Amino acid sequence: MNATYEKLMKCYKSLRELTDFKPQLALVLGTGLGNFADTIRIAQRISYHAIDGFPTSTVEGHKGQFVFGYVDAVPVVIMQGRVHYYEGYDIQDVVLPIRLMKLMGAEVLMVTNASGGICEKFHAGDLMLIHDHISSFVPSPLRGANLDALGTRFPDMTDAYDPQIREIIRVTARKENIPLQEGVYIQLPGPQFETPAEIRMARALGADAVGMSTACEVIAARHMGMRVCGISCVSNMAAGMTGGPLLHEEVQQNADQTAPMFEKLVHKSIVAIARSM
Ligand code: HPA
Predict the structure, then answer these.
(1) Are 56 and 64 in contact (CB under 8 A)?
(2) Gap between the Cα atoms of 26 and 97, Å rounded
(3) 62 C-alpha vs ligand 1 centroid, how far in Å?
(4) pLDDT tens, residue by residue, 130-172
(5) Which end of the chain has the lower number of beta carbons within 10 A, N or C?
(6) CA 118 / ligand 1 centre spacing (Å)
(7) Could you report the per-residue pLDDT of 220-257, keeping only the tens digit for each?
(8) Residue 253, CB half-sphere, CA atoms under 13 Å: how many?
(9) Mutate to test the pocket of ligand 1, among 210, 248, 250, 257 (most ligand atoms within 8 A of CB)
(10) How far, in Å, from the CA of 238 to the mean position of ligand 1?
(11) Looking at ligand 1, which atom is closest to the CA of residue 188?
């Protein structure tokens, strides 16, 4: 059997020995946004370390666990801490948790992250609905033999971010008086922040915000036929845009500050998305 598939199945079996929870929606929480998991009605927490073969997260500010529970009545699985490519994992390992959540039953994936704002109209602290992404600077998680049991060899990436769900999130934001930008997210490998020249390149390519995650996860999710949406917290303006240096602590602090608004948008959107299904 294919090694990637074998590892996935081993993790799935291990996880199923720990829980029979069946989520409807999967949520990935990014930097500074991890506390959302504490605001839901929690049924169970499972540390990534407890899952046989799971790539464990090392980045500061990430707890590294699945949280199972309910947002109002909607059964969700939350990744409190994601696996990043810059930590040294193979890209197939980075997306293993996404595949796992789909195998558990999640039909919708909501991804969140902190990003650097590239679009000149953005400000630190803005929330951005992800409209599309550029993944061309990181390897594809679908590289290698296709896992036919999961999806097709050449998956379509038109409307990778579900247009109907995007509209639900826009309407929700409007209703809740939450300002919401919209734009293209570019995933760069990191872990160093970009140079000003790289930011000018990303802007020329059509990117509005930059980060070190997400696009590869979305590719794996679309491969398996999940419907996807994403919200980015623009925690800082990208390199070269303000004159000062970029510090991870600042990224974390700004993301923390935006957290209450973000939590509200995520909560209300999840309920509205589930209602539409
Ligand atoms: N660049 C890359 N990743 C990020 C940034 C940034 O400016 N801010 C938060 N994550």
Answers:
(1) yes
(2) 10
(3) 16
(4) 999 999 999 999 999 999 999 999 999 999 999 999 999 999 9
(5) N
(6) 10
(7) 999 999 999 999 999 999 999 998 888 888 888 888 88
(8) 5
(9) 210
(10) 7
(11) 2
